[in-house]
Each structure stands twice: as structure tokens, then as C-alpha cells.
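Q: Could you fold this chain for me?
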Amino acid sequence: SAGGFRLYPLPGRAELARAAEVFRECVRTDSPETESQGRRLFGMLFGQLDPRFRGKPDWLLVLDDGIFDIPLGALVAPGPGRQPAYLAESHSMRILPAAAALLDPPPPREGNGLFVGVADPIYNRADPRWNNRGAFAFPGLLRFPDSDPAPIELPRLAGSGREVQACASSWERSVVLQGESATLEILQRALASNPEVLHLATHILRKAGNADEAYIALSLRPGGELDMLTPSAVAPLGARGLVVLNGCGSGQGRAVEGAGLLGLTRAWLLGGARAVVATHWPVTDEAGDLLRAFYRELRRPPDGGAQPAYAAALSQAQREMIAAGGWRSRPAYWARYFVVGKE
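A: Sure. Below is the predicted structure, expressed as C-alpha cells.
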């Protein structure tokens, strides 16, 4: 805290990693064991904390290998009232890419009210929007950089268009790239206006066995190949605001001691983004209720202070989903989202 620090011994790395893996799978699969495993893991990680630390509403977390994958908001904390009491109901949590980020706070946020969204790209030849312009013999086949094309086409994400259009309504100005407009070239032009938010609702693809090599799949090129945004191409885009990666497992990556989590989140942060909202596991192709609530909270006029921090806005959106009931109230839906970054 501002007044000092305390060190607490934790269980061994292997024990924590096993407990984290069990809990993550319980949340992801909506298992009836989620609550009991959430209580157990909360106790292992935070049970020893002095109340003056545990009671702080906003937590900054620097995580180690095996703990990055924990859906922290779904941990079950002891306390009065309705049970289970998820950690997201009482705390906001921002994951720092590394401890050094504490020494380099971001400058004040200067928003221009511009939202740029990418959604519902053209992913296959069966899409009626595909006009087959000069396609070669195998249009639509996925080609990873420096590799042969794999014989697959991707399913359309029709719901992502509705999601991004609904999210855009919270902003003063918006540019939504859909269909044949969801290309890297057009995205580069849109980012030249320095938007407050870049929201990508796309497929996230990976090479087998390499979590760091993740690719954001954009629309088919005129020749039939998928346009893909690689990690190395992210930094030159110059996105300086918030980046939301609403794709399957967009927050996955390899943790390196002293460096933190690699992967797409790190690529955007190195490119200048203030923060990244990412996911722990695959998302459903739906209207994006949680993210719409997140943007509403983020755009709420400040009450005598600064705008809500990204982590605080996400936590409030998660509480809205819990209170709403139904399938959106389950941790399997809302706990997959997390914030990593400088703000």
C-alpha cells in the first residue's frame, strides 16, 4: 500500500497451478463445483491478507506463470450477504503487464469520443457478401505467415455486427468496419484518427503449440486469402487508447519471469495502448450485453472526479450481469473478461 508492504508465503508453484487449472475449468464449464473451488483458491491466494489490504476496492495485480489464467472475478470471497460473493462484486482488478508498470503511470486520459469497431468480416466463400473478385483456385483458405495454407474456412460471426453496432451507440462518434471493409488497410486509415476505443470482434487464431503466435482474422482479400493482423503488425498501427479484443481466448499467452504475459495483449500495450480488455476462453457470438454495459459505465459523466478507470467500469458491468439473472449472471459468461494494462 502507500504506507508500506507486507510479504506472505503462498503454497508452492505446482500446488497453485493445479488449483488454478481446476478452478478455471469449473468456471468455463459452469460446473457445480465452481463455488467450492473458488473459495479454496481465494483462500490460497488472498486468505492471509490483513483486512486493511483486503478491504481496498481497487486491486493492481502482477501475476506469475500459472496464475494469469485465473478468472479472478469469479473467486469467492468470504463476507456477509448473498452467497456466493464473487470477488468482482467487491473489487475491481487490473492486471499489470509487469511490476515495472507501477513506475510509469499513464498520462491523463484525453478522450475524443471516437469508437472504431471491427466486426462480422467475410470469412468464407459461402458468405453472400463475397463477390469472388479475382479469386484463385482455393479462395478463403487460411494462410499463416511463412506456412502453407490450411484447408479450412472460418464460420461467419453474424452476431458480432450487432454487438459492435450496439457498443458504438454509447460513443459520440463511431466508425464500424464490417464485411469487405474489415481489412487491415481500412483499419489503418481509421486508426489515424486516434480513437478512444478500438473494439475487435473477430476470430482469434493460433498455431498449434504456440500461444504467443496469435492472429486476428480480418476479411478475405480480393484474391481470396484471409487478411490477418499478426502480433508484429500491431505496434505500427499506433492504437493509443483502449483496445477490446472480444475474440476466443484473446488474452492467452506465455508468461515469462520478469517480463509478464506475452501474446496479443502485450503486443497492443507495446504499441502504445493504455489498456486491453481480453478474454480467458472462447466467447459466444451474441449481442455483447456485458461490453455494452462496460461502455455505458465508462461513458458515465464523472461525479466531481475523473472518468471511471477501465477495471472499475468492467467490474461494474460484471455486477450488472450478476444482478440481471439468467445465463448472463453465471461466471462462465462474465468472468472470462479481464483488463491488463497501464490504466
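A (continued): The longest helix spans residues 13-28.
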